[in-house]
Amino acid sequence: MNKPTRTATKRKAGPNRGPRAKIGAEKAEDEKTNKPFAERFKESRLSTAETLGENVKRLRTVLDLSQADLAKAIGTDQSAIGLIETKRANPTLMTIEKLAAVLKTTVVDLLTRPGRRRTRA
To answer: How many domains does the chain divide into?
Structure first.
């Protein structure tokens, strides 16, 4: 007589199993981490592009620079700055470093949301 394999036997739902066992933030966190990697990666990338674009525009206006002025300072076209600010570009690390230098900030600050920046000791 053949014994059923583990995959063939059905596990019984206990008090700590099943979709209703998790509540509140725990459930939301699990759902967030259960997304496929590609989907989470795409969301992070969009979030980074949004943050970079907003920070570049904010710092550029604080320094009273036009897009053309900033582009000339880092050696690129004005359209590239426009694409970065509208979150439609994927600039290289070298470009981000140049932007940080001209905008008198750090790469980390360019890629961090304003409310999430750490204070320096």
So the answer is: 1
